[in-house]
Design brief:
By secondary structure, this protein is of the alpha+beta class. It is 18% helix and 23% strand. It has a domain of 103 residues: Cathepsin B, Chain A (Alpha-Beta Complex), CATH 3.90.70. The longest helix has 11 residues. Pfam families: Peptidase_C1.
Length: 217
């Protein structure tokens, strides 16, 4: 959403939308910190708007993220391991942090539309090229958690559930096609927080549930 606002405003608007505002206020189907529901999130952006908010470490904007960075499965320097249970979803406050220079309603950014992208490799590529990154829901397996580099495809480990990521590009390495995607496991995980996954064969269902939207500029 933030990327698309920047792209379609020709770089004039560069908000960092608040993850806390979305997960806290999206409603019961959004499911808060428990994975969430991608279509509901995009519909919420369109109907209710989302305010700005930085990270716990850089608490900028109206509603910053309340939880610190942590290690996801692969130990790294300086971060504590993530808790075994998800944090409880924060309450929906609908007000900006003390000292911020706008009201909650003044700070909102809205979507103009939300839609599913056809589950075809070329259609997804065209959507990214024309309008910006998309969100994909895919099947999560244990071996993904320990990904470090390269082009991922599941080899071993049990099914953990569904997971949502941002696909922002594609490429080919040694004849293998891949999607480039951003994960939410911090910069210490994978390829500086990003990963590559096989493209064109619906690996782990990555091409089956792709959603996007257009911002209201």
């Amino acid at each position: 959403m933030s990327d698309r606002i920047c792209i379609h405003s020709n770089g004039q608007m560069k908000p960092r939308l608040s993850a806390r505002d979305l997960v806290s206020c999206c409603g019961p189907r959004g499911d808060g910190c428990n994975i969430g529901n991608a279509p509901d999130a995009w519909d919420y952006w369109k109907s209710n708007g989302i305010v700005t908010g930085g990270s716990f470490e850089e608490p900028t904007g109206c509603v910053p993220y309340p939880f610190p960075k942590c290690d996801h499965y692969i130990p790294s320097t300086g971060l504590k391991p993530c808790p075994k249970k998800a944090y409880p979803t924060p309450s929906c406050q609908r007000k900006c942090q003390v000292g911020y220079n706008k009201t909650y309603d003044e700070d909102k950014f809205y979507g103009a539309s939300s839609y599913n992208v056809h589950k075809d490799e070329k259609d997804i590529m065209y959507e990214i090229m024309k309008n910006g990154p998309v969100e994909a829901t895919f099947l999560l397996f244990v071996d993904f958690m320990y990904y470090k580099s390269g082009i991922y495809h599941t080899v071993t480990g049990g099914y953990l559930g569904r997971h949502m990521v941002r696909i922002l590009g594609w490429g080919v390495e040694n004849g293998v096609k891949y999607w480039l995607a951003a994960n939410s496991f911090n910069e210490q995980w994978g390829e500086n927080g990003y990963f590559r996954i096989q493209r064109g064969n619906n690996e782990c269902g990555i091409e089956a549930e792709v959603i996007a939207g257009m911002p209201r500029i």
